[in-house]
Amino acid sequence: MVALIATGQVPDVTFKTRVRDESVGGPNPYRWQDLTTSDIFAGKKVVVFSLPGAFTPTCSSNHLPRYEELYEEFKAHGVDAIVCVSVNDAFVMFQWGQKVGAKNVFLLPDGNGEFTRKMGMLVDKSNLGFGMRSWRYSMLVNDGNIEKIFVESDFGDNCPIDPFEVSDADTMMAYIKGTESAGVSEPRLAFVG
């Protein structure tokens, strides 16, 4: 069953990230840096996609790589940034980015799951030994306002499957192209399955 929900602002949270800083010295020249929701979204058009976990099969073989592949096309259509959110810590997200060769998509660690919880997307995946993780979704955010959100079907705790049909890069690109060709913005509503 599909329900119609109104969309609004992205949640106000502070993310714990690591940034390279040569003044740190040593073999690991990184320091902690807080990034707020405002830092990421204010005054920008941002595509966000969220997934269950770094290093997991679909996330590593398709979800992230396809957003990487279409990065320049998204930019050509006015997208300022593409952000991948996962309930993983900064160290895991960094190593995953290195492993898959992520160069354009910003891997945003939601280690405490606060953003994911406030989005209403935190689910229990204990059946897989994952604990609390994000449900798979994507959204287009304009200046902090959620314009469109695509949420995978069968949302719920301990789901025995991992749907991947609407949060992909091609679906988001088709949406962006469709709104451009229509010449008008869609109402600020989203379909959630």
Automatic annotation (TrEMBL):
Oxidoreductase among keywords: yes
Entry-linked Pfam families: Redoxin
UniProt key word Oxidoreductase: yes
Catalytic activity: a hydroperoxide + 2 glutathione = an alcohol + glutathione disulfide + H2O
One GO location term (cellular component): cytoplasm
E.C. number: 1.11.1.27
Residues annotated as domain Thioredoxin: 4-174
SUPFAM superfamilies according to UniProt: Thioredoxin-like
InterPro entries in the record: PRX5-like, Redoxin, Thioredoxin-like_sf, Thioredoxin_domain
Active site: 59
UniProt entry keywords in alphabetical sequence: Antioxidant, Oxidoreductase, Peroxidase, Redox-active center
Any one GO biological process: hydrogen peroxide catabolic process
A GO molecular-function descriptor: thioredoxin peroxidase activity
Function noted in UniProt: Thiol-specific peroxidase that catalyzes the reduction of hydrogen peroxide and organic hydroperoxides to water and alcohols, respectively. Plays a role in cell protection against oxidative stress by detoxifying peroxides.
Family assignment from sequence similarity: Belongs to the peroxiredoxin family. Prx5 subfamily.
Protein name listed in UniProt: Glutathione-dependent peroxiredoxin
Native source species: Phormidium tenue NIES-30
